[in-house]
Here is the input.
Amino acid sequence: MRAVLLIARKDLASFFDSTMAYLVIIAFLGVTGFFTWWFGNDIFLRGTADLATFFHVANWSLFILIPALTMRTLAEERRSGTLDLLLARAVAPGQVVAGKFLACMVLIALTLACTLPWYATVAWLGPLDHGAAACGYLGLLLMSACYVALGTFASSLTANQVTAFVVALLCMALFHFGTSVVAANTTGRVGELLRYLSTGTHFESMGRGVIDSRDLTFFITFTLAGLLLAGHQLARRRASHA
Here is the structure.
């Protein structure tokens, strides 16, 4: 556990020493704030004190930002050669992956925490369903965990950050809206399976304030699968350099 925390702390420091953390936070707040408060189907136009617009925009914003955040997690370490040095020490591949994952999730949690003043403002404007809002935030965190795990796996496949970004974005697009688009034109068990594999379907359910064990199982299983694949990729790399 100590190795995981050390790796996470190192990566967090790296995020804030560069412009990455600040760009992620500013871009997320800028995009979600603009569409939530000033443009399109904003809160004042809808005349309803809820965070539905924010959750919808945040869902798509994280879909774009997370690949940019995860593309350097392992690809940069691999390019610079520090990944091989790290694996040569008494650090398990799973610990490396867990540390990288934890650092990204802490940054995302901090980014979402910066939107809590909006939550307080909406609650002040009218009667807010606090349970639905809490479920929406939980849904964003769980969906982010899935995409961070998938992005970390994509980053473990290459030493090129741009390639890692593209691979992660394409894979996320498949689960973010690809499966639901195909499911809309598919019936029977295949259609049900495709709808179940859509992260958007599970997020929308939680965004309505519903916590279903099927949604939690999906998010947790998806996240663990991504982390296990990334750990397996690093284990193969360490074995090939042994």
User: Anything to note?
Assistant: DSSP finds 13 helices and no strands in the chain. The radius of gyration is 19 Å.
